[in-house]
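Propose amino acids for all 153 sites.
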């Protein structure tokens, strides 16, 4: 045994945020008794716990990107041959919308499969996601990358 195994056993792994005082998973509107905690006892409350370090967060980001990339490649045979910018745009869209949300863009994805980049971009732009003031800039950037195949400068 080593310290990682010991702490993993003692803390237990929790995939979702929970209240460390009650052990209950937290959902919007719940009353918090203790501190919001996740993973192996990581308190994420500002001013109380250590929070999530940037290196740890980047590791989680890389892991999530790899998962999304793999899922897109499994779902769409046309995905893997795309250039890195268009792959990245679709990863970013899935990151923001969830894979299920991205899959709702059936016409945009069909246009991507057909390599009709203008139509794909137009389909992304013809959405509540693009019209939403909170996501508009991101959605526009993604649509532009899909259309041009170029990373933003």
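Proposal:
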């Amino acid at each position: 045994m080593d310290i990682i195994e010991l702490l993993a056993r003692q803390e237990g792994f929790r995939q979702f945020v929970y209240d460390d005082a009650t052990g209950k998973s937290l959902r919007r509107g719940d009353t918090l008794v203790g501190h919001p905690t996740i993973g192996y006892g990581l308190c994420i409350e500002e001013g109380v716990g250590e929070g999530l370090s940037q290196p740890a967060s980047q590791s989680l980001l890389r892991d999530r990107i790899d998962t999304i990339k793999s899922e897109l490649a499994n779902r769409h045979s046309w995905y893997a041959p795309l250039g890195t910018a268009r792959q990245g745009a679709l990863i970013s869209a899935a990151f923001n919308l969830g894979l299920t949300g991205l899959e709702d863009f059936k016409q945009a994805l069909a246009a991507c499969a057909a390599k009709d980049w203008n139509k794909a971009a137009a389909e992304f732009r013809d959405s509540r996601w693009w019209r939403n003031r909170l996501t508009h800039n991101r959605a526009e950037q993604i649509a532009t990358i899909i259309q041009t195949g170029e990373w933003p400068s």
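The first strand starts at residue 14 and ends at 19. The two ends are 49 Å apart (CA to CA).
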